[in-house]
């Protein structure tokens, strides 16, 4: 009896706003459909055409031609490889450093307020400014890096150091965001368990493995998946730092696609590149979701 | 004996922690300090073969010169227009939908919307910008702030919906029901009971949308063609190029100015955004 009343009650409360709901939902739903879902589908369709900017003949369907060209385009695969190196080399150290910093910040240390305050700044900065700032640091003549190390290098301009140099900037730029997220997760770690483990004589590493990590695992997984995806899609930072140079050493896939589309006007071809990136990101996202579901079972 | 060893070990651990913290502080702070220092250095010190951390003869000339070299005021006005408009429109159109999502969070619509929030985090904007560019071109909205504002609104909608739905869930349904029992109409309940409770959330979401738009670069780069229309981040990149050492001062000065608004606003809402991302990451 109670059960039945409960269900009818929820059914009713779920339904009663739903009558007027369309009117409430429409203002947000329309722009999403028109300017987000629509363009996404249109973009995928473009990948199968020979669309170019400023052309007079009508655009035609070309089937898989763009993808076949892409498969043979060594420049694209080089850029793709650089993109993967960049994404992994930024995300992994960033996560490790962020976890270290977050674990430090939950300790009762002096000056941790300073670290917390500092952590806000890079997060709030426009990416373009982060790029400009590091250009000043790396500047061959007036940069602080050469000054401190006593070297005379063109960090962003030489083939061997350009990619490592931009990777350091990538790590710096989102370190705070990952740290603060992990810090929030650490706040939920049960204190009593920690103390109990300490009383039982568990060392710091053991306590981390058995108490802390299980508690923060879902958040840790989520933020690293997100940050990997963000890094694959990243553009502004490297655009400002090197513009993809020298000799294409830092040309991330997004920069490549941007040049193709808005430098050479190859809309169809650039859209095909976009599709490949979407496919990669979707696979990652799927892996992440599977990982999360497994985590929930534990 | 054993005890002193333990104490000694704990002390060593503490010292190690402080050392690590110092390392982090240096890594986080040194580029910021260098930017700050460069912005106030006169050209003579910038060109010196032995540049120091602290400007010996601090000057504001770099700021003046930055305004002379590039249309910074125009750019700031453009950025402000785009960001304020995007923030206000986002909140106005997202709030009703977020409310519906919060009140029927098991309906297919809410599920689809939540799924969209997750997916939208993932998709490469290059695939969206080409069609958007073509569509906006047909509507004659290329090189116009209105076109950019439309894009910004759609871009911040998913996260705004997510944040707002969280705040709306926190408004107790009982309060609304009590007001309804007292004879208030549906609209009246929304306006005089729900909205005031939702206000802090609305402000936080608006500020978030503002910062997103203020900092955004890629769409602005593609959609805005002439300097009269361009926003702050795009104008900043005009300073870059084969810059001589003397131009670094104005570059740093302009960058500082471009950062200030988002920094101030971000300090206000940082906690809320953190809890927002976290809630999203865990519950979704």
UniProtKB/TrEMBL annotation, chain A:
It is found in: Cell membrane. GO terms for cellular component: plasma membrane. This is Putative transport system integral membrane protein. PANTHER family: ABC TRANSPORTER PERMEASE PROTEIN, LACTOSE TRANSPORT SYSTEM PERMEASE PROTEIN LACF. The chain crosses the membrane at residues 21-48, 84-106, 113-135, 155-173, 219-241, 261-290. Keywords: Cell membrane, Membrane, Transmembrane, Transmembrane helix, Transport. InterPro entries: ABC_transporter_permease (IPR051393), MetI-like (IPR000515), MetI-like_sf (IPR035906). GO terms for biological process: transmembrane transport. PROSITE patterns: ABC_TM1. Belongs to the binding-protein-dependent transport system permease family. Its main location: membrane. Residues 80-288 form the ABC transmembrane type-1 domain.
């Amino acid at each position: 009896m109670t059960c039945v009343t409960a269900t009818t009650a929820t059914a009713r409360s779920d339904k009663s706003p739903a009558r007027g709901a369309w009117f409430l939902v429409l203002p947000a739903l329309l722009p999403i459909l028109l300017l987000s879902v629509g363009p996404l589908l249109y973009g995928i369709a473009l990948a199968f055409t020979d669309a170019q900017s400023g052309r007079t003949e009508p655009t035609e369907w070309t089937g898989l031609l763009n993808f076949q060209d892409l498969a043979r385009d060594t420049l694209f695969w080089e850029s793709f490889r650089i993109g993967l190196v960049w994404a992994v080399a930024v995300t992994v150290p960033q996560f490790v450093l962020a976890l270290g910093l977050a674990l430090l910040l939950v300790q009762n240390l002096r000056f941790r307020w300073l670290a917390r305050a500092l952590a806000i700044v890079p997060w709030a900065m426009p990416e373009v400014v982060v790029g400009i700032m590091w250009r000043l640091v790396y500047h061959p003549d007036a940069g602080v890096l050469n000054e401190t190390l006593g070297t005379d290098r063109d960090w962003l301009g030489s083939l061997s150091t350009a990619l490592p140099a931009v990777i350091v900037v990538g790590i710096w730029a989102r370190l705070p965001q990952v740290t603060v997220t992990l810090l929030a997760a650490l706040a939920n770690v049960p204190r009593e368990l920690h103390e109990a483990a300490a009383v039982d004589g568990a060392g710091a590493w053991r306590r981390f493995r058995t108490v802390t990590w299980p508690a923060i695992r879902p958040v840790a997984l989520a933020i690293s998946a997100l940050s990997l995806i963000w890094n694959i899609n990243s553009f502004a930072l490297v655009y400002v730092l090197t513009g993809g140079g020298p000799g294409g050493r830092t040309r991330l896939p997004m920069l490549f696609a941007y040049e193709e589309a808005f430098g050479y006007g190859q809309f169809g071809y650039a859209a095909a590149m976009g599709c490949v990136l979407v496919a990669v990101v979707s696979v990652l996202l799927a892996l992440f979701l599977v990982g999360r579901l497994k985590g929930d079972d534990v | 004996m054993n005890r002193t060893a333990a104490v000694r070990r704990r002390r060593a651990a503490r010292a190690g922690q402080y050392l690590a913290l110092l390392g982090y502080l240096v890594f986080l702070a040194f580029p910021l300090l260098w930017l700050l220092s460069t912005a106030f250095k006169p050209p003579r010190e910038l060109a010196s073969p032995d540049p120091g951390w602290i400007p010996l003869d601090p000057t504001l000339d770099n700021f003046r010169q930055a305004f002379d070299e590039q249309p910074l005021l125009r750019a700031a006005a453009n950025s402000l227009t785009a960001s304020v408009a995007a923030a206000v429109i986002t909140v106005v159109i997202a709030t009703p939908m977020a409310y519906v999502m919060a009140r029927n969070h098991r309906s297919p619509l809410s599920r689809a919307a939540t799924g969209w929030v997750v997916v939208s985090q993932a998709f490469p904007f290059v695939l969206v910008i080409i069609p958007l560019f073509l569509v906006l071109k047909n509507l004659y909205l290329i090189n116009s702030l209105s076109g950019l504002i439309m894009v910004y609104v759609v871009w911040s909608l998913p996260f705004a919906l997510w944040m707002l739905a969280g705040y709306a869930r926190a408004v107790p349904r009982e309060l609304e029901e009590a007001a309804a029992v007292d004879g208030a109409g549906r609209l009246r309940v929304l306006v005089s009971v729900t909205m005031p409770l939702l206000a802090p959330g609305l402000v936080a979401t608006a500020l978030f949308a503002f910062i997103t738009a203020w900092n955004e670069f890629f769409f602005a780069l593609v959609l805005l063609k002439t300097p009269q229309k361009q926003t702050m981040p795009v104008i900043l990149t005009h300073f870059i190029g084969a810059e001589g050492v003397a131009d670094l001062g104005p570059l740093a000065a302009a960058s500082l100015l471009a950062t200030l608004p988002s920094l101030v606003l971000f300090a206000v809402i940082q906690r809320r955004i953190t809890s927002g991302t976290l809630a999203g990451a865990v519950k979704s």
